Recover the amino acids of this structure.
């Protein structure tokens, strides 16, 4: 297992048999005592965010996952189901692993998952997705006291606030990190 003494953002770390995604790291110096590395990590088994501080120079075990293409089938109370595009086997991933990204998955869509030694670490998330608006209320006249928005539903069932000019049938770009409207899609 490879070790490093300088963990970087975006790295997959293995600790006590669990896998973590390093979301952020900060270096804090303490004069003569040397520095500390403050890591913000996401546990890939349950989505929990953990902050951990280690001394600068401490070795961290990391993994390099392989990428595999899968097709999204459906989800239910037990998990999220995909089909391996090479073997046509069914793959079930816990909803905890996918988290809020479930709101942006379209049936039949191909996505990438990250696998290490048979363990599914996570879904490779796109920073933005384009989805069609299937339900949109009409703009209410006079509802413009502050930033005028209305609630719409996109094809995956996800609901979000968009500007008043967005209509049913239009495609919009959504920022998957914040879950907010980005722009109208071409």
């Amino acid at each position: 297992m490879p070790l490093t003494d300088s963990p970087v953002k975006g790295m997959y770390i293995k600790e006590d048999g669990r896998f973590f995604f390093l979301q952020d790291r900060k270096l804090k110096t303490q004069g003569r005592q040397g520095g500390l590395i403050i890591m913000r990590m996401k546990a890939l088994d349950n989505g929990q965010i953990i902050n951990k501080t280690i001394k600068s120079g401490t070795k961290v075990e990391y993994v390099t996952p392989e990428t595999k293409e899968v097709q999204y089938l459906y989800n239910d109370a037990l998990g999220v189901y995909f089909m391996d595009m090479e073997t046509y086997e069914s793959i079930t991933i816990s909803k905890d692993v996918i988290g809020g990204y479930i709101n942006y998955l379209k049936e039949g869509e191909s996505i990438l998952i990250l696998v290490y030694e048979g363990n599914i670490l996570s879904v490779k998330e796109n920073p933005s997705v384009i989805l069609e608006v299937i339900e949109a209320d009409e703009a209410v006249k006079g509802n413009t006291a502050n930033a005028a928005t209305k609630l719409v539903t996109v094809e995956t069932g996800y609901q979000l606030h968009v500007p008043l000019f967005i209509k049913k049938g239009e495609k919009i770009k959504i920022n998957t990190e914040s879950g907010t409207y980005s722009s109208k899609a071409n």
